[in-house]
Write a structure and sequence with these properties.
It contains 20 helices and 11 strands. By secondary structure, the chain is of the alpha/beta class. α18 packs across α19 (421-439).
């Protein structure tokens, strides 16, 4: 039956592992793009379109990309079309999308958030719209209500170093909100020394840190202050968006000269920008290691391919794709080696959108293990890879090259409060894979052992690895 209770669970062992060990585990969403203000203000949504598709300029650009492929006009995607029209346009689109993860995710979202088990079709659209909006109108159906409904214990937002973190402080001051919301240090703007607005950004960072940035030395001091500020409000993660990366070694005098040029609004060459980024990344890795943080490297993304649409709609609107940087693994190896030589290698999770690089990264990370359990991890199937095939392949590569039982599991990487069924989807694929191995005699059919591994990957590893719940240790 279509997406019944045993959806994807094709063996008795898969069903036993999912229903007995994975299904009821809490969620730690250690990488997302939710708006902290919406969480603290406990936003109530007007209708299914606002919650599902488009919310005041933001939304789920996974869905937007499919709607454009169907020829839906932009006014019904990110424009001023009526909410019901937008919803119907998405319904028509999803009917053309068998095999796309959104087809399965969208049905899971309706089932888990709204209790609606109808197939998403034009025929069912009026009833889905009515029933979903009735639930949305209920007092408890809000941003926080959804977080609690899905059993989320912690969400980690993505935050600029210059953020004042006021929303995180407000939630932390509440007596018992029922979950944690912690910031993640995302220094993309700090790294973009070649960007036109870099000098202006330094002024923002100066104001946030209380340290006037006039050179490379004061820039590092300001960055270190912001790491400490994030740590004070519970931040334990950094996330570097390395769309591409090249390791370019430079001494302190050379980096200082590059920073001086940028602060004087002088152009910085690509080689100089890479030298600065290398030096900054190594400096920050030392800060993360000294604070006991984990670094996430999200790599190999081709951003804003459609320049006309970028000018019209801005970033993060559905015009990014998988990168194809050659030699990326070699560049990362140089970075990790340099950090190791400085005793500045934090726990690190390596992600690449190019699945062809997973084996290179998985084998590379094994050269830098030690000191703590699974210091290096291959990141979960992320963004365009978080499909049935991508999740399965990532689990197989991790298992083949390292210790799968140490894996920290899934994240949403989402701007939507309805994305938490992606954790369920991941857990179903995980249990399917382990169940097949048990049925094939590749691993012992031992429920206590296998169930423990499933519970670890679903929840406990993330709980212990990141240190979000130090008070529970």
């Amino acid at each position: 039956m279509f997406m019944d209770d045993d959806f994807l669970l094709d063996t008795e062992w898969a069903r036993k592992l999912f229903h007995g060990h994975a299904e009821g585990q809490p969620i730690i969403d250690y990488h997302c793009h939710l708006d902290p203000a919406q969480v603290v203000e406990d936003v109530h949504f007007k209708d299914l379109t606002q919650l599902w598709l488009f919310d005041n300029g933001g939304g789920d650009h996974y869905k937007w990309r499919l709607m454009r492929a169907e020829g839906v006009p932009e006014r019904l995607i990110t424009g001023d079309g009526e909410p019901y029209e937008k919803f119907c346009a998405y319904v028509r689109t999803i009917g053309r999308a068998p095999g796309n993860p959104l087809y399965e995710w969208s049905h899971l979202e309706l089932r888990r958030a709204f209790g609606i088990d109808l197939t998403i079709t034009e025929k069912n659209a009026p009833e889905i719209w009515r029933r979903a909006n009735e639930r949305i109108a209920e007092p408890g159906f809000s941003a926080r209500g959804l977080i609690r409904r899905f059993g989320v214990r912690c969400i980690c937002t993505t935050d600029d170093p210059a953020s004042d973190l006021s929303w995180h402080r407000k939630l932390a001051e509440e007596k018992d909100p029922g979950f944690k919301m912690l910031p993640t240090f995302r220094p993309d703007a700090l790294s973009a020394i070649e960007a036109e607005g870099f000098a202006s950004y330094m002024q923002r960072l100066s104001a946030a840190s209380g340290i006037e940035i006039v050179d490379w030395k004061s820039l590092k001091e300001a960055a270190a202050q912001r790491v400490e500020a994030f740590h004070t409000v519970g931040g334990r993660l950094a996330d570097h968006g390395l769309n591409s990366f090249r390791f370019v070694a430079a001494d302190e005098e050379e980096v200082a000269a590059i920073v001086a040029k940028a602060l004087a609004h002088e152009p910085v060459s690509p080689q100089e920008a890479e030298a600065y980024r290398t030096a900054l990344t190594l400096f920050l890795m030392g800060e993360y290691e000294s604070h006991g943080w984990t670094l996430q490297l999200h790599m190999n993304v081709f951003r804003n391919a459609n320049s006309c649409r970028f000018q019209e709609l801005g970033p993060d609107t559905g015009f990014d794709s998988v990168g194809d940087q050659p030699g990326l693994v070699h560049e990362v190896a140089s970075l990790l080696d340099a950090a190791q030589m400085r005793s500045a290698l934090p726990r690190t999770i390596l992600y690449s959108l190019d699945e062809a690089q997973w084996m290179g990264l998985a084998t590379l990370m094994q050269s830098f293990q030690g000191g703590v359990r699974q210091r290096m991890q291959l990141g979960c199937a992320w963004w365009f890879s978080d499909s049935f095939a991508g999740i399965t392949r990532q689990l197989e590569v991790f298992a083949q090259e390292s210790l799968l039982a140490n894996f920290c599991g899934m994240l949403t990487d989402s701007r939507s409060f309805l994305s938490y069924p992606r954790h369920e989807y991941f857990r179903r694929v995980l249990c399917r894979l382990l169940g097949q191995w048990a049925e094939q005699g590749r691993i012992p059919a031992d429920e206590e052992w296998l169930g423990g591994i499933v519970e670890d990957i679903s929840y406990r590893n993330a709980h212990d690895y990141f240190g979000f719940f130090e008070e529970e240790r």
